[in-house]
Amino acid sequence: MEATASAAGSRRSLGPVALVVGGALSVQFGAAIAVLLMPRAGALGVVTLRLALAALVMLLVCRPALRGHSRADWGTVVAFGTAMAAMNMLFYQAADRIPLGAAVTFEVLGPLVLSVIVSRRLVNLVWAGLALGGVVLLSGGGFDRLNPVGAAFALSAGAMWAAYIVFSARTGRRFPQADGLALAMGVGAVLSLPLGLAEAGSKLVVPSTLGLGLAVALLSSVLPYTLELLALRRLPAPTFAVLMSLEPAIAAAAGFFVLHQALSAVDALAIALVITASMGAVRTQVAGKAPGDLTK
What are the tens digits of pLDDT across the range 195-215? Predict the structure, then answer.
C-alpha cells in the first residue's frame, strides 16, 4: 500500500515537470522558426505577430471575464503582460544578433539567479550551481566573441524571464484556468504592437508571414505559456527556475535541427551538466514532499 501510494505521489509530482519540459521544447523550436522569420518582419515585428496572434487565440478559447476582478488582480495581470512583452522583445533582439543557443544561455541566468535567491534548501543551491556551470561551458569558454549588444539584450531578457516566472505563478493563483494568461497576452500584444508596426508595417500582413507568425505564436506562446502556468500551480518556484536550465540544451537542439547549427563535444558536455542539474532538482522535490503535499 505504501509503495503504491509513493509511486502514485511521484507520478503526480513529475506531472508538472513534464509540463515544463514540454513547454520548453515547444518554445525553443518556435524560437528557431522565429529566427527564420526575422528577415521578413524584423525582431520587433516577429514579437508583435507572436503576441498578437497568441492573444487572439487565447482570448477566443478562454473568453475570460472582464468583471469581478480586484484591482490587485488587474495589477498582477498587467505586470505579467509587461514582463512577457519585455522578455520577448529583448530576447528576439538578442537572437537577431547572436546564435540562438548563446542567447538562451545568457537568458537562463535570470531564472538561475531567482532559484538561488528564493531557495530555502542548500541542495537547491548545489543544483543551481551545477546548472550554472553547464551554462558557462555551453558559452564556449567566454562570450567575448559575441556581439556585446546582443549579449546585453539576452541578459536583460533573463531578468524579465525571472519576473515572468514570479508573475505567472501569481496570475495562476488569482485567475481560473488560463484566463489570466489570456488577459496578460492581450496586455503584451498591446504594448508590442506600436513597436512592431513601426519596424515592419505592412509586412506583418503578408499571408506567408502571417502563417509563420501563427506557428511561432502557437509554439512559442500559446502552448508553452499554458503548460508553464499549469505547472507553476503545483511546482515550487525554485524547482521551476532550475528546470529552466534545460532551455540552453533544447535551444541548441533546435538550432541544430532547424537552423543547422552544429554541436561540439564541449556543447554536449555542457548539455549533460544542465540536464543533470535539472534532474537533481526534480529528485529533490520528489524526495522532499509527502504524497499529500505534492500539489503545494
Answer: 999 999 999 999 999 999 999
Only one residue has cell 522578455, namely: 87
For 67, 91, 105, 143, 159, the CA distances from 155, given in Å and listed in that order, are 37, 9, 9, 12, 7
The three grid cell numbers given for residue 283, joined into one nine-digit string: 529528485
The pTM assigned to this predicted structure is 0.80
* Residue 270 neighbours by CB distance under 10 Å: 25
Tell me the DSSP string of 73-111.
HHHHHHHHHHHHHHHHHHHHHHHTTS-HHHHHHHHTHHH
